[in-house]
Amino acid sequence: MSRTDAAGSRPRSNAWQSALTVLQEARPPFVPEGAHAMTVIIEYPPGDPGTPPHRHPGPAFGLVLEGEMLLELEGAPERVVRAGEAFWEPGGDVIHYQDGNNRDDVPVRFTVTMLCAPGEPMLTLVDEDELARRRDRRTPRNS
After folding, report:
1. Does residue 26 sit within a domain?
2. Prediction pTM value
3. Burial of 4 (0-12, 13-18, 19+ CB in 10 A)
4. Which of 28, 52, 105, 131 has minimal Cβ neighbours within 10 Å of its Cβ?
5. What is the pLDDT of residue 108?
6. What range does the domain containing 52 cover?
7. Phi-psi group of 9: left, alpha or beta (phi > 0 → left; psi -120 to 50 → alpha; rest → beta)
8. CATH of the domain at 48
9. Residue 22's CB: how many other CB atoms inside 10 A?
10. CA 10, CA 20: separation in Å to the nearest integer?
């Protein structure tokens, strides 16, 4: 079966008209001046707690590819994000408490696209003193 027509051109498809599925929409509060985008894949083994409390210099948008992630951001309750579900965080001054694997029996794998401020690391760990000073901003945990 040929993928070209009689004139040697590829036939046009209409599949693009229904191929798009919106997973999430968000209006980030800010985008750092001169930001650049970075897309990464993060993989944690079963039961791994993930990155210690941290923050990002700009907003981050993600999608869980496999498994389940336990996500907790400052001012919001912890929640489970499952394979196929999208998430985002505003970045900036907001502490990202958890991004670990919610399951003990399977790995978690997710992708994140971040808008990073030039010259700043994409992730900065938050120390224990700051966590203590801001404990009133953390939503009570489910567990």
Report:
1. no
2. 0.82
3. exposed
4. 105
5. 98
6. 36-135
7. beta
8. 2.60.120.10
9. 6
10. 22
